[in-house]
Amino acid sequence: MTHPLLDLPPLTAAHFAAVEGRVAALLDTEQDVVIMQGEALLPLEGCIRGGARPGSTALNVVTGPYGQTFGNWLRDCGAAVVDLDVPFHAAVSAEQVERALAAHPEIDFVSLVHAEAATGNTNPVAEIGEVVRAHGALFMLDAVASVGAEPLLPDAWGVDLCVIGAQKAMGGPAGVSAVSVSGRAWERIAANPAAPRRSYLSLLDWKERWIDGGRKALPHAPAQLEMLALEACLARIEAEGLEAVTARHASAAAATRAGAAALGCGLEPYVHDARDAAPVATTLRTPAGVDACEVVAHALAADPSAPLIAGGGALAKEMIRVNHYGADATREAVESSLAALGAAVGTVSGRVSGAGSAGAADMEAARRAVAKAWG
């Protein structure tokens, strides 16, 4: 008996290349696009290990946990690392990057996360790209959380290595990712004797065995399910229109901030300034003494489908993430998340009796705020 998810014909080289072409169109890039067979940490580490080496100096912008990971990889490569640490409730500015580059003219590699889903902030890449380009450094961008949720233009912004994943705003699988690679980046990696070769981390292997060969023979058997799922989510974005997809995410973020404030239960935006807030997820700070993990547990018990999670690490007790991305970037998902949170905060804080409701008047105010912000 055949099974549609198991009895699949091999993915041809032409089919694989066609999916790459659709990723390039999504990014509006003329650079080479490599689809890698793993979660986005695979190309991110491959980019750093290819672009950084002993003797190089990297500016690593840290606006969340992924920036911290990049710093560890850069040091492991033997690079000198200048960390530009920014409070997780804010974004980095182009002026801050410019000052760091001026203070360290030897910097030749810059790593930045576009949107930090874990902390809910997003960084002004277009302005930062201008500064990095003027300095002459290679620019690597983690756009896993931003692709599909907000504008992303690696060519126009001077991004040399732009890594995306499909599992957030694109609404696709986690097991496949992609990176666009500029000519400058290929030259840098090829000149690095420490760059991975004959390795799953190697971008050069893909270039030499796949791109330079005319994309006629794949280096290894691709993950069919993940590639087909990636193709399906690209088709869905194309059908809706990228502008409409990003607008939906922006509306979800604005509505979540507005609705949380209207609830009146003490939830406050973790990212102070709305312009620094990522469209992919909204982070909220719980009232003093109210455990975020406990709030999320109560909320999910009431509504298991709500896209809610407590913050990670040191933020677990004070931060809640509303992950309004992909299929959850809808007004309905925002309203249900706020309803579950309003009831849960009341229950945990002990301010609400009976069923733990946020109160009909509070929820109605939140709905009106969501409707107004959604536009």
Structure in words:
This protein has 375 residues and is of the alpha/beta class. It folds into two domains: 13-239, Type I PLP-dependent aspartate aminotransferase-like (Major domain) (Aspartate Aminotransferase, domain 2, 3-Layer(aba) Sandwich); 242-374, Aspartate Aminotransferase, domain 1. It has helices at 13-27, 41-51, 65-76, 94-103, 125-135, 154-157, 183-190, 203-211, 224-240, 242-263, 292-302, 331-349, 360-374; strands spanning 32-36, 57-62, 80-85, 109-113, 115-116, 121-122, 138-142, 161-165, 177-181, 268-269, 282-285, 308-310, 319-322. Strands 1-9-8-7-4-2-3 form a seven-stranded mixed β-sheet, with helices on both faces. Helix 1 (13-27) packs parallel to helix 9 (224-240). The longest helix has 22 residues, at 242-263. The radius of gyration is 22 Å and the shape is globular.
Write the layout of secondary structure elements.
Elements: H1 13-27, E1 32-36, H2 41-51, E2 57-62, H3 65-76, E3 80-85, H4 94-103, E4 109-113, E5 115-116, E6 121-122, H5 125-135, E7 138-142, H6 154-157, E8 161-165, E9 177-181, H7 183-190, H8 203-211, H9 224-240, H10 242-263, E10 268-269, E11 282-285, H11 292-302, E12 308-310, E13 319-322, H12 331-349, H13 360-374
